[in-house]
Amino acid sequence: MLLTCSSPVEVVVGAADRSGPSRNRRTLAHQVRYAVRHPERVPAHARRAARDAWLRLRYRHDHIAYYRAVMASDTARSVEAAVGHNPSRERWAQLGRMQFDYLVRHGLRPHHRMLEIGCGNLRAGRLFIDHLDSGHYYGIDISPDILLAAQDTLVGEGLQSKVPYLALADDLTLAFLPDARFDVVHAHSVFSHSPRHVIEECFAHVGRVLAPGGFFDFTFDRTEGREHQVLHEDFYYRTETLVALAARHGLSARLMEDWEELPHRQSKMRVTVRSDAASEGRSEAHGGSLQ
Ligand SMILES: C[S@@+](CC[C@H](N)C(=O)[O-])C[C@H]1O[C@@H](n2cnc3c(N)ncnc32)[C@H](O)[C@@H]1O
């Protein structure tokens, strides 16, 4: 059985707990240490390991179908826990607020257009929708179960008049979206659950939908040691791997140091279209700042 200290998906940590980038959660030593420290979490891990074995039989070659089934299973247990570790509504709201405040500090204004990849049940999306002009928020997700829960959030928050778009996606080619549309593309706790080919697909296409001057922010589980995954749900990448992957698709990526100060275990990167790549494809270069 594999144990991971961030399972099932995401945790809020104190700054002092952000000690994990070099740990490999797949090693037996790590798993034993973790089980001894947190015996109460062992049954949940056992359940996840059994689910992983079962789902891998059906979806071995299709990560999206696999993860969609994970989300169906998690959402049926608790919508809040499906998008974050802690099932409490308070933590759910806190994580959403952290994402929202960060982007507002970085210049998100009501007239901007935003695409949220992996919008979940609008933990942060509800705040973005409220902040942005009507029709300026577009959320996509691979899970129909969580998108239904997102509609419940919209109703609960009385946000119908903002007419946000919510769409089911099967891949990250973003093919159904227009060119140069979005000032901000945001993906929180999505690449932490994505194998490399899914991230690369996103990098190959996100530049097309970014408006001039726009940026794409995503969080990921960072390791400074060996890259690894746990139970095909949690993926750990080195920063330089993602920088190099982005560069292959004409994008610049950098670690957001000010996010590291916040009480959250994942790291955040910002991607912009490289000015040389932008001048090949478009008239305006992307500077990475909003106006
Ligand atoms: C941990 S939840 C986070 C949800 C939301 N971003 C938030 O912060 O509350 C991850 C979400 O990403 C979705 N997801 C995972 N892989 C995806 C992909 N390749 N494309 C779009 N959505 C994806 C999942 O269905 C889930 O709703």
UniProtKB/TrEMBL annotation:
One of its GO terms (biological process) is lipid metabolic process. The keyword S-adenosyl-L-methionine applies. Signal peptide: none annotated. Residues 115-216 form the Methyltransferase type domain. CDD domains: AdoMet_MTases. It comes from the Bacteria. One of its GO terms (molecular function) is methyltransferase activity. Residues 270-291 are annotated as: Disordered. Pfam families: Methyltransf_12. SUPFAM superfamilies: S-adenosyl-L-methionine-dependent methyltransferases. Keywords: Lipid metabolism, Methyltransferase, S-adenosyl-L-methionine, Transferase. Belongs to the CFA/CMAS family. This is Class I SAM-dependent methyltransferase. It comes from Streptomyces acidicola.
